[in-house]
Structure formats: C-alpha cells, structure tokens
C-alpha cells in the first residue's frame, strides 16, 4: 500500500445516480460526479469512501496501491450498508482486467471507467468561455 505524503484536505463532491446497469451480468451504477473543490484524486477517493470505487481504479479500488475505502476504517464504512461487497468488487476487477487484455472492438477496454462528459474553460488568449462535450465510451 502506498502512503500519501500529505495530510488529507477537505473536499466536496456532488453526485447523482444516472442509472443502474449491468456489465457482463455484474451490477454497476453510472454516476454523475461534480467536484466542487477540485482536489487530486477527489472523485476516486469519494467513490471509494462510500464503498463504490470507480471501475478500473488501480489506486483506490479493491487491489489498489492506495488506501482501500478511501482510507476509512470498517466502523466508518458501516455507515454505508449498501456499499459494493468485496466479492463484487473482486469480480468487477477481474472483468476489467480481462477486457484490458482482450481489447475487443465492441467493448470498452480502457483502464479507468471515469470520463469527463463536459469541460468548461476560458480561451487562453480571448478569455471567451469554451465548452467541450463528449459522451462516455462505456
């Protein structure tokens, strides 16, 4: 397990359940995540901390290098009784790893199932607002 060199900072993430889905027969949940504060790994830690790590997360996921459950202990995790079971997380981990190895054209085989659907910036020269939109590939 890797230890983070800095103390954690407060963060705020707004989330909304978009749909309940199945990935090769395994239950998953598609979320909309909005980082209010913008901390490093904020979305990944927030999902892991409520017992639903992002698919393919090699840091905070089931076999990740970071702190499991976003660093929360079992007493704190008991506040989330509907969290994904360890066996489901292991099954999903195995499925994602198999997809990365097989690289079939008809299925997403990326590393992390996290996607920025919308990105808003200001043009560096004119300061005009620019918005980019892209649907998730999974």
Notes on the protein architecture:
With 138 residues, this protein is an alpha+beta fold. The chain has three helices and four strands. The strands form two sheets. It has a two-stranded antiparallel ribbon. The longest helix is centred in the C-terminal third of the chain and has 17 residues. The protein is globular, with a radius of gyration of 16 Å. It starts with 12 loop residues before the first strand and ends in a 5-residue tail after the last strand. The mean pLDDT is 88.
Q: Which bin fits the share of residues in helices?
A: 10-25%
The Rg value, from CA coordinates, equals 16 Å
- Which structural category fits the helices and strands? alpha+beta
Which whole number gives the mean pLDDT? 88
The biggest beta sheet, please?
A: 2 strands, antiparallel
Q: What are the low-pLDDT stretches, counting only 5+ consecutive residues below 50? A: none
> What is the total tally of β strands?
4
Strand fraction = 15-25%
Can you lay out the helices and strands and say which pair or pack?
Blueprint: E1 13-23, E2 26-35, H1 42-49, H2 74-77, H3 86-102, E3 118-122, E4 129-133
Antiparallel strand pairs: 1-2, 3-4
Q: In short, what is this structure?
A:
With 138 residues, this protein is of the alpha+beta class. It contains three helices and four strands.
For the structure shown, list the relevant keywords.
two-stranded antiparallel sheet, 4 strands, globular, alpha+beta, 3 helices, single chain, 21% helix, 138 residues
